[in-house]
Amino acid sequence: MNDDLRIFYGWVRRSREILFGDCASLPPEIYTQERADFAFGSIRNLHAHVADCYLWWVGTVGLGKPQVPIRGAEVPDVAAMRAVFAQADAVGNTKSAQK
Q1: Which three-class secondary structure state does DSSP give residue 44?
Q2: 70 in Cβ contact with 48 (< 8 Å)
Q3: C-alpha span between 95 and 73 (Å, rounded)
Q4: CA nearest 87: which of 65, 45, 64, 59?
C-alpha cells in the first residue's frame, strides 16, 4: 500500500473510532433498533454493511479469498462491531503485507 493510502486509511480508522465512541454512548437498544425508515434497518446493520463491503472488496476482489458475510443481527453491540472492523482491518493488513 502506498503512503497516501496508509495516511488516508489512518484517517478512516480514527473517524470510525470517533463514530463508535458516539455509538457506545447510546443505549444499546438504540444501536440495534430496527426501523423501516432507516438505511439497512439500524445503525448496527449499517455498520455491518460497511464492514461487509470492505471485506468483499479487499478479501474477495483483492485477495481472491471469499470472506464470510457480516450479518448485523449476529453482532450484539458496539464492542462486537469494533471486533468485526478489527477483523476487516486485519484482512487489509494481510493484503498490504503480501506486496
Answers
A1: helix
A2: yes
A3: 28
A4: 59
Residue 19: per-residue pLDDT = 95
DSSP label at 74?
G
Domains of the chain: 3-98 (1.20.120.450)
pLDDT digits (tens, 9 = 90+) for 48-91: 999 999 899 888 888 888 989 999 999 999 999 999 999 988 88
Which residues touch 83 (CB under 8 Å, ≥6 apart)?
none
Sign of CA dihedral 43, 49, 53, 55: positive
Which long-range contacts link 19-26 to residues 24+ away (Cβ below 8 Å)?
20/78, 20/81, 20/82, 23/47, 23/78, 23/81, 24/78, 24/79
d(Cα 49, Cα 66) in Å, to the nearest integer? Answer: 16
Q: How confident is the model over 4-31, as pLDDT tens digits?
A: 878 888 899 999 999 999 999 999 999 9
98 against 37, higher pLDDT = 37
